[in-house]
Design a protein that fits this description.
It contains no helices and 30 strands. The chain is mainly beta. A 7-stranded mixed β-sheet has the order 1-11-10-13-8-5-3, with no helix packed on it. Strands 2, 4, 6, 7, 9, 12 and 14 form a 7-stranded antiparallel β-sheet that branches. A 4-stranded antiparallel β-sheet has the order 15-17-21-19, with no helix packed on it.
Length: 397
């Protein structure tokens, strides 16, 4: 942005990491910022809290600023019509006067405006603003930074600021304020030749990227216990572990091993869930159980916890079993007969299974039922059983 007549019509910042630290549209007061207003003589205030984010502009002689005058006639600080140039999301688009900070009068040559803000956890400050001037206004903007409001380092100089239409200025990147909790930048103006010469400042943005280099980390505590059950019934006493994370770039995906399912509320169980979001995840209980649809057998494996750019963490399950479910046969009976020297019996009715799970009702078949008379000629229907393909999951009782 340095150089005679330097202009940039759009602000371009690395959207992946940069964010607004402090912004001034000099109109929005709903977030605690100062809306500009002028007195009967045109004078305006000398301190402005940021309309977005956190920061303060000083023209009152503190923190290395000059003591500007708002007295009439010809105040050094006033308010004029503004611009939509360089307006960030949420900034006011109203431009009618007073809508921006205006500095005026050749008596203010070499006067200084100071901005104070917080750069803790931030790096690579980018300053941008919309400005216009008059032919007799301040033609030079010198920008300095400081970590203590006493020792200043010049980082950019913008010249030729007598244009009478707004343009956007983007200053050179500042690295000297990285991670400074109480940071300062200072604008010194010069070159005005009359008491009516002025510059307007609007839609000031201070943007910076995160300076955090911490690696995302997943942490777990606790040991999982056995959760054995019977086919058709989810584990009645789930086991659990505690999950947490720091510096996360995304939520933590929790993937259950085969046969198991997981939940964070003890009600909604799935084979895979996402816990938390980017940032920090406080300790959260994750419950683990065998699903009701898991077929009989022995199960073990790892619950895998993973997140973007973080090392995955495994939580071992304890060996657990799913037992066969007991079902019964109904709907068929032997027809009484007169003894004829044989034990052969005839059956009546249609055999059906009682106790099947709903998901299995249409997929389980019986073998052809057989019956014989035994002992005192009471019928025995024990020849009715499951087909070989289904016998692995149920016991006919």
């Amino acid at each position: 942005a340095a150089g005679v007549g330097s202009k940039t019509l759009a602000l371009t910042i690395n959207a992946q990491s940069a964010s607004l630290i402090a912004g001034w549209d000099f109109q929005t007061a709903t977030t605690g910022g100062t809306a500009i207003s002028t007195n009967a003589g045109g004078g305006a205030a000398l301190v402005y809290n940021a309309n977005f984010g956190f920061g303060t502009i000083f023209l009152n002689g503190s923190n290395g600023s000059s003591l500007w005058s708002s007295a009439t006639p010809n105040p050094q600080v006033t308010g004029f019509a503004g611009s939509t140039s360089n307006a960030a999301a949420g900034f006011s688009t109203v431009t009618s006067s007073p809508a921006c900070l205006a500095i005026a009068n050749s008596t203010a040559n070499s006067n200084k405006i100071v901005f104070q803000f917080n750069m803790a956890g931030k790096k690579d400050l980018v300053v941008s603003y919309a400005t216009r001037g008059t032919s007799t206004g301040f033609d030079t903007h010198r920008w300095d930074y400081s970590t203590n409001a006493s020792n200043w380092v010049t980082f950019d100089t913008v010249m030729g600021r007598t244009d009478t239409s707004f343009s956007t200025i983007i200053l050179s990147n500042v690295t000297g304020l990285n991670d400074i909790a109480s940071a300062f930048i200072r604008l010194t103006v010069s070159g005005a030749t009359t008491n009516s010469g002025n510059n307007r400042l609007d839609n000031i943005q201070l943007n910076a990227a995160s300076s955090s280099t911490a690696v995302p980390q997943i942490s777990v505590t606790g040991t999982l216990g056995s959760v054995s059950t019977t086919y058709g019934t989810a584990s009645t006493n789930p086991t659990s572990f505690q999950l947490s994370g720091t510096n996360l770039a995304a939520g933590i995906t929790v993937l259950a091993p085969n046969g198991y399912e997981v939940s964070t509320n003890g009600t909604d169980y799935l084979s895979s869930i996402t816990v938390g979001a980017a940032g920090t995840l406080s300790s959260t209980q994750v419950s683990v159980r065998l699903a009701s649809t898991t077929v009989p057998g022995t199960y073990t494996g790892n619950v895998v916890c993973s997140s973007l750019a973080a090392a995955s963490v495994n939580v071992a399950t304890a060996s657990s079993t799913v037992a066969k479910e007991t079902i019964s046969v109904s709907g068929v009976s032997a027809v009484p007969k007169t003894y004829d020297g044989t034990t052969t019996a005839n059956l009546t009715g249609a055999a059906g299974l009682v106790g099947l799970e709903a998901q299995d009702a249409t997929s389980v078949a019986l073998s052809a039922p057989l019956a014989n008379f035994v002992g005192d000629l009471h019928p025995d229907g024990s020849g009715c059983g499951l087909l070989q393909s289904d016998a692995a999951q149920w016991i006919v009782g």
